[in-house]
Amino acid sequence: MKKVFAIVLAMMLVLSAAAMAESVKIGVFEPASGDSGAGGKQEMLGMQYANKETPTVEIGGETYDVELIYADNGSDTTKAPSAANTLVDAGVSVVLGSYGSGVSIAGSDIFKNANIPAIGVTCTNPQVTAGNSHYFRVCFLDPFQGTVLANYASKELGATVAYTLGELGNDYDQGLCTYFKQAFEGLGGTVMHEDFPTGTADFNSYLTNAAGIGAQVFFCPVSIAYSTQIVQQAASQNVAFPILGSDTLDSNVVANAAKGTNVQVIITTFYQEGAAPEFDEGFKAWLAEDSEAMTNNGGNDMISAVSAMGYDAYYTALEALKAAGTTDSKAVMDTLPSVTYDGVSGHIEFDETGDAIRNAAFIKKINNETGDWEFVAEQTVD
Amino acid sequence: MWNTIFPYLLTGISVGGQYALIAIGYTMVYGILRLINFAHGDVFMVAGIVMVYMAASGMPLWLCIPLVLIVTALVGFLIERIAYKPLRNAPRMSAMISAIGVSYTLQNLVLYITGGLNQLYPTIPWISDSVTIFGATTKMVTVVTPVLTILLVVALVALINHTKIGMAMRAVSRDFETSQLMGIKINSVISITFVIGTFLAGVASVLYFTNYTTVIQTSGAMPGLKAFVAAVFGGIGSIPGAVVGAFIIGIAENIIKGLDIILFKLGVIAAPIGLATFSDAFTFALLIVILAVKPTGLFGEKTTDKV
Asked: In chain A, which residues have their Cβ closer than 8 Å to the Cβ of B246?
């Protein structure tokens, strides 16, 4: 009996080894839990859809199955290194992610030491790619995003006093607030900045502070969990100022929170539904047949920009694998700087630091009656 | 001046009331079992999640709220029976470690069920409506909370001082073994203590999440921790102490969040200096100071050495 069992086990090992030989592993370094869990899941949806659409890739004349390996970094910079190690141990050729710049920076060195390239999907802080040769990204950067928003607040909304709020110790929030402040003050406005500790649920006092200084815009580039609280509490306080946000707020969870209230929410983002109709249609059809994907998308079929970016990042990774002609991570890293790809969110081409060269951002706002995102303008900065 | 401070005061009193309801659970359990029930904050969070799922199933809200309170009390009862009762005669440290275990179990259970996505708390009519008091706009729940808290505390104190079960509770908290010898069924007294404590945490969760509408698996951690500080501040084991401590912490925390603006408007400082950052630091610094200066808290029982 034992012998038979041992033989079966051995057979399984051989079989799985045979199966493994024909697959290439792409690491998905994303938060599936914690404050950014909702955003991370939506970013993963884009990759999962892309993987369903194109499950194989031609590398060096041979067809490989693409296998997505998941590691949950828990939106936590202390958990990120161990999640990164999981991916290194699994032997991935390239890593996608993460949602949130802080965790990307925290996992960065582990990928670097293992010679594995990483493609940031929506981590917009400059520090992610600065000073290294293994981290790339397909989205725009915070200095750009902060400037776009400050310009919009000053020129379109006519604001002269702004209030900015960020989470203590969160690189993403703090970076954006600083860039917004620089640009807004450059345009002749004044800014008051405050921080809140991690885990805060009560934003009433911060909203009162903003009203107290006579702020005309309230800029809070925070995680989704906080932004829904802020939107709801702003609604109950009946605030006069619009809430300005960054790409993190681009989620239907936030839109649902603002539905039926009269809070104005205006944000910058990477992708607006309708820019690539074929992708929109396919993605929605996939959500309709996969109930778990639908739940992860917040229970409806609105397309978050992060999903579109996840989709583009997956194809960029495939392009890199094709160009490298091997699954060796070092070779993929060396070919990545020269990879170009025309994605649903626009043309992707890397500059010398590894950032995608982009000069346009979409501005959109929430329609309070329907709870949908509406396109406002496409803003470019030269 | 008044117009500047009032909105902060209002939020502070409301948050204080919610902390108070949670703090009572800590203080009652400690009073009777000498156990710090670290899972209490998570029971509060579970109450929020249960409400989210019940409302999502299409059940009418007037039925949901009492059901949530019953389920929460049941959870408290079961936790005590499963995790603490078998350790009744074990060293106190074992029960506390068991409490930490329960806390993590609940958090991870909710993480598994929700998949880590934040859930939007259902809107309860009337208490979710906006009201304007003295120029400050807020939700009705902010006004309802302190009143409801005081009513519940008065009822609880009456229960403890004037009923048979209350007398049994007092006896058990004085001397565990002697009261057992006197014929008090300590297991049922302890169960009732847990049921009351978690019931109040359930009430707190309805009030708290109506104001702060996002529920995730870690939602109970911060309010739980602050309520615990409030219980220690007021003197752990004392119900009026926990309530007073909670109100002081709630108000102080919110005043600090607005201190920049208040000082700025008074002309004390020329520009905001970022004091709001220290609102949580204040709460925990207060805990250290209290433990160093007056370990028994404001209303704590005097410890007399019997030897």
From this structure: none
The structural domains of chain B, with segments of one domain joined by +, span 2-293
Among B42, B114, B117, B278, the strongest candidate for a mutation testing the A interface, having the largest count of A CBs within 10 A, is B117
Q: How confident is the model at residue B34 (pLDDT cuts 50, 70, 90)?
A: confident
Q: Complex ipTM, two decimals?
A: 0.77
> Mean pLDDT throughout B164-178?
90
Q: Which of A274-288, B17-31, B63-77, B127-141 has the lowest mean pLDDT?
A: B127-141
Q: Are A346 and A84 in contact (CB under 8 A)?
A: no
Q: How confident is the model at residue B304 (pLDDT cuts 50, 70, 90)?
A: low
- Sort out which chain B residues have CB atoms less than 8 A from A263's CB and list them: none
Contacts of A92 (CB under 8 A, 6+ apart): A25, A26, A27, A69, A116, A329
10 Å CB burial of residue A179 (0-12, 13-18, 19+) is: buried
Q: Where in chain A is the domain with CATH 3.40.50.2300?
A: 2-140+276-350, 142-269+362-380
CA distance linking residue B23 with residue B157, whole number of Å: 14
Determine the average pLDDT of the residues in B251-259.
Answer: 90
| Residue A160 Cα distances to A135, A157, B262, angstroms | 38, 9, 22
Question: Which residue out of A213, A232, A248, A262 would a mutagenesis test of the B interface target, given it has the greatest number of B Cβ atoms within 10 Å?
Answer: A232
Nearest Cβ partner for B261 among A196, A200, A213: A213
Q: What is the CATH number of domain A142-269+362-380?
A: 3.40.50.2300
Please provide the average confidence, as pLDDT, over all residues in chain B.
89
pLDDT reported for residue B305:
54
Question: Any idea which architecture A2-140+276-350 has in CATH?
Answer: 3-Layer(aba) Sandwich (3.40)
What is the DSSP code string of A131-168? Answer: T-SSEEESS--HHHHHHHHHHIIIIIS--SEEEEEEET
Question: Contact A105/A127 with Cβ under 8 angstroms?
Answer: yes
| Residue A19 pLDDT > 60 | no
Position A12 scores a pLDDT of 66
Pick the CATH number of B2-293 from 1.25.10, 1.10.150, 1.20.120, 1.10.3470: 1.10.3470
Residue in A41, A213, A237 nearest the CB of B117: A41
What is the rounded CA–CA span in Å between residue A113 and residue A103? 17
Whether residue A197 is predicted with pLDDT greater than 90 in this model: the reply is no
